[in-house]
Design goal:
The protein is α/β, with parallel strands linked by helices. The chain contains twelve helices and 15 strands. Helix 7 runs parallel beside helix 8. The N terminus is likely disordered.
Length: 373
């Protein structure tokens, strides 16, 4: 099948294009973006810097607040600077119990006291928990006044939260809390945070999983592995990778694994990832490393490569196979973008069509021919 025949098959082209191109009205009414509200680095003058993490996720018509920073005043100031309205939140996800991720939650509850909050389930966690009363040893020889609950405890003991009356649900396993929106619950096995439970947010989008991590105490690779069980395509990873004091060899190993083994498309690290790890990830991922300092607003599902491919899909391929020049909308390509296209098309005559078809199959997510029987 020639390139020109492929392109001229209008019905197939239209069929392939539909899932990749949401309508303008859908894009306007349902933004897909992540706004970094809290971190210790950033370029935006209106946003204050402090150690901690918080992000607002808007995707699929949902508005999700992920963590609430280290200082309530800084959190509120940054939310105001970015125009965030806490009354319109669909829910809040608190990744773990450390203070640099939860200080602003009380402020959210002041204006939205009934908002649903998800946190990790721990035996005696600040987000509330429960245990069977059989967890403690009993001594029936003691008089009732010296026994817990006078010797008649309830079957299940309920433990309160640090936010009285808050609508909190604790999570202890990977759980889909809304269509396509998952929480991943894992436990740290690292010295210093042993048995710390942490929840990560995984959103299954048409582009793949958008993953938000708080501190990655259980290990960033373990979290990515759990997310890949939902969808093996990981489109984005945001947040803290907990490599702030990691040696160079660990940084190199983790960076290579995220790129090569897990094939993450884009990384947007912050918080406790660490300055040497920022540099290591930037080297490993190149232009797929996305700056995500405090105040950054990052559009999901968009990248230079995706935008470039959308132009090329609309070009005249029959012309492109015989010339390195582009026509139609693709003629707008300039500089490095144009060089990118030329590099793709400037193969030998015998190799040109297979190379272009392979690229088209990858772009349209079509299986290889042998898998289409």
């Amino acid at each position: 099948m020639s390139i020109s025949k492929f392109v001229r098959t209008a019905s197939l082209t239209a069929l392939l294009a539909v899932p990749l191109a949401p309508t303008a009205s859908q894009a306007e009414t349902s933004p897909a973006r992540v706004t970094i509200l809290y971190d210790a680095f950033g370029k935006e003058a209106s946003v204050r810097k402090d150690w901690g993490f918080s992000a607002l996720v808007e995707v699929g018509g949902k508005r999700i607040l992920f963590d609430t920073g280290n200082n309530a005043d800084v959190f509120l100031a940054n939310a105001k600077a970015k125009g965030v309205d806490f009354t319109t939140l669909d829910f809040v996800v608190q990744s773990h119990r450390h203070a640099d991720h939860l200080a602003g939650l009380a402020e959210v509850l002041k204006v939205n006291p009934k908002v649903k909050i998800y946190g990790p389930k721990e035996g005696f966690g600040v987000y509330g928990s429960s245990l069977p009363s059989s967890f403690y040893r009993k001594n029936e020889q003691l008089p009732p006044e010296q026994r817990y609950y006078d010797g008649k405890p309830p079957e299940t003991l309920q433990f309160g939260t640090a936010w009285n009356g808050a609508n909190i649900e604790v999570i202890d396993k990977t759980t889909e809390i809304a269509p396509g929106i998952w929480l991943i619950a894992l436990v740290s096995d690292q010295k210093g945070t042993l048995e710390l439970k942490e929840v990560s947010l995984a959103i299954n989008t048409p582009e793949g999983i958008v993953l938000l991590v708080g501190c990655s105490h259980p290990g960033i690779e373990k979290i990515v592995e759990a997310a890949s069980a939902i969808n093996p395509k990981i489109h984005y990873v945001f947040g803290g990778f907990h490599l702030v004091n990691a040696p160079d060899e660990t940084i190199a190993s983790v960076s290579a694994s995220l790129r090569d083994k897990w094939k993450i498309e884009n990384v947007a690290p912050g918080h406790c990832t660490g300055e040497p790890t920022f540099a290591g990830l930037r080297e490993a991922f190149g232009d797929r490393y996305v700056y995500a300092g405090a105040g950054s607003v990052l559009e999901l599902g968009k990248s230079r490569r995706a935008e470039l491919n959308s132009y090329i899909h609309k070009a005249s391929y029959s012309a492109a196979t015989s010339s390195s020049e582009l026509r139609g909308e693709a003629a707008a390509l300039r500089g490095s973008d144009l060089e990118y296209y030329r590099a793709r098309s400037a193969t030998s005559p015998d190799a040109r069509e297979p190379a272009m078809m392979k690229w088209l199959r990858a772009s349209f997510r079509l299986p290889e021919p042998e898998a289409r029987k």
